Amino acid sequence: MTSRGREEAVAxxxxxxxxxxxxxxxxxxxxxxxxxxxxELRRIDPAVRVILSSGFDEQETMSRFAGQGxxxxxxxxxxxxxxxxxxxxxxxxxxxPRLSDTHA
Length: 104
What we know:
It is a single chain. With 104 residues, the protein is an alpha/beta fold. It is 46% helix and 16% strand. The protein has five helices and five strands. The strands form two sheets. A three-stranded parallel sheet has the order 1-4-5, with helices on both faces. The chain has a two-stranded antiparallel sheet with strand order 2-3. A hairpin with a 2-residue loop joins strand 2 and strand 3. Helix 1 packs parallel to helix 2 (34-44). The radius of gyration is 15 Å and the shape is globular.
């Protein structure tokens, strides 16, 4: 994939962001930078759910994105079941405390 691929992907996201529920983004791509792409997606839609994929250490990678609103992380190499679980977690709405939980 070329840098044109990144530009095309961002353009598609810009045009169709209301139809896209999540983005699976590789941190390291040929001729592309996952961090720059992440920031561009967030500029277009601050609420976009981005799941980051990387062969780098999860703790190290997540610390680079701390406070930036990543929806999830999947360590490469990963299997289909792991990817499905990560996507499900990213798409699940955050748990809200039940009234009984707040008045224990």
